[in-house]
Amino acid sequence: MAASGYPASEEIARASARHIAGGVVSLNRKTDPPIAFVRAQGSRLYDAEGRAYIDYHAAFAPHILGHNDPGVNAAVKAAMDEGLSLMGSGPTPWEARLAELLRACVPSLDLVQITNTGSEATAHAIRLSRAYTGREDIVLMLGGYNGWHNDVARAVMPDLEATGPRVSPGEYPFLPSSAGIPEGVGRRVHLVNFNDLASVEYVLRRHPVACVLTEPALQNIGVVPPKPGYLEGLKKLCAAHGALLVFDEVKTGFRAALGGYQSRCGVAPDLSVFGKAVANGYPLGVIGGRRDVMERFADPDPKKRVLIAGTYNAHPFTAAAAIATIERLRANDGEVYAALEAKGARLQRGLEELFAEKGLPAAVSRIGSAFCVYFMDRVPADWHELAAHHDFEQDRRLRRALLARGVYHFPLAAKQGSLSAAHSDEDLARTLEATREALKDLRPSA
Question: How confident is the model at residue 277, as a pLDDT?
Fold first, then answer.
């Protein structure tokens, strides 16, 4: 659908561009067409033209219960009505309750700290790892996303010409995704392919690595699961070489399972970071893990102590939202997750049948309520495989065709789709019918 079909959205975009550097407050939100959404409820987004869409973007995945969940909003409103405010002095009962719930859900969290975003949490995880180990280097995954700060701000979906051919064992260039990053940063950051233990070992043997920081399943290039034994292998390698294993569960945490993806794979990292779904769309991040590591935040020796600060950390309204979200996810023996798994399985089966009918090579990857369609003959194991074999143009055409039929996926190829508890059986049926119609706009690849 041409951008000219969104006159009200285009006017909002022009107004934003006059006052906001870059036109949007997060450059990751730039889209074509530049649709301006003005309202959201449950499984629906509403644009400035008044059109409704079944939403599978979920604002990059936090809305596990759906937009404006009544229970979560009621908890925030109750906090307002009770006169809670940002006191900014001493401990509070709501941050204590939130920490208690987090530790009850995720066994690897001996202690936690609260931040406002996932990027803040990963920055703290890197600093904490460096202080604990006395080392400076870190290992990251090509195709992973761990935030916007200097150590992790590199291209998530780089061109393979820039990356270079697959090397194993070996590593890839830093490829910063932003200007203003000091040249020396790249010398301490080592990029390897996900699911490549040989390359992790290669780096650990050659450099003083403080931590291996990875999403346990890559969910910023769709949904790329770990191979059997991969995460177990990472833990063994880190232990053998004195590095900390850090799971970035900002996207997988509280979406893959109540205990995070780590509870599904049975691997307990040294540190974990969470965000997004933990507060169903309210801004909140978490870092937690081993007691001996986390206690560096309060070490009596100022030379060993790691600073954590933030005026808005555990703001009472966001803490109330997180408490309400977690309590809902814990209720009735995890009925929300059982329902999401059933919905995800139904959607996956339906999509696979439609692609088979059309004769299009496609693989549907799914972990619980997170899913992605790859136009290739298998689910990729890493960025090199995805970049070399996925039909990005076919992917973009499908997303645009679905948009015209009232189904919203973020209009960038290989981005994750997310189900919520608010998606109904009718939503799934309408989505599959819209996909059937959208596939008429696609043609088999040459």
Answer: 97
pLDDT confidence of residue 29:
87
**pLDDT tens, residue by residue, 247-262:** 999 999 999 999 999 9
Domain boundary among 308, 326, 344: 326
Residue 127 within any structural domain of the chain? yes
Weakest-pLDDT range from 47-61, 63-77, 152-166, 426-440: 152-166
Q: Is residue 248 among the annotated active site residues?
A: yes
Tell which residue, 385, 377, 391, has the closest CA to residue 143: 385
Angstrom distance (rounded) from CA 237 to CA 386: 26
**Number of domains into which the chain is organized:** 2
| pTM exceeds 0.90 for this model | yes
What residues make up the domain containing 416? Answer: 3-68+334-441
**Does 350 lie in the same domain as 306?**
no
Residue 328 to residue 39: CA distance in whole angstroms: 24
Helix (H) or strand (E) holding 94: helix 93-105
Q: Examine residue 446 and state whether it is found in any structural domain, yes or no.
A: no
Secondary structure letter of residue 388 according to DSSP: H
Shared-domain flag, residues 253 and 115: yes
Are 168 and 79 in the same domain? yes
Catalytic residue among 276, 337, 391, 408: 276
Active-site hit among 55, 69, 248, 270: 248
For residue 12, give the 3-state DSSP assignment: helix
User: Edge to edge, what strands does the sheet with 209-214 contain?
Assistant: 111-115, 285-289, 271-274, 244-249, 209-214, 137-142, 189-193
Residue bearing tokens 């490829």: 175
* Boundary-marking domain end, from 277, 299, 326: 326
pLDDT over 90 at 445, yes or no: no
* DSSP per-residue letters across 31-43: -SS-PPEEEEEBT
343 is annotated as an active-site residue: no
Look up residue 373 and give its DSSP letter: E
pLDDT score at 3 = 45
Asked if pLDDT for residue 145 goes beyond 70, the answer is: yes
Whether the pLDDT of residue 246 is over 80: the answer is: yes
**Are 139 and 241 part of one and the same domain?**
yes
Residue 4 is predicted with a pLDDT of 58
Q: What residues pair up with 325 in beta bridges, in sequence order? A: none
Tokens of 426: 């009718």
- Strands (DSSP E) contained in 179-243 are 189-193, 209-214
Task: State pLDDT tens for residues 317-347.
Answer: 999 999 999 999 999 989 999 999 999 999 9
Given the residues 53, 56, 132, 145, the one annotated as active site = 145
Side chain identity at residue 31, one-letter code: T
| Residues 310 and 361 occupy one common structural domain | no
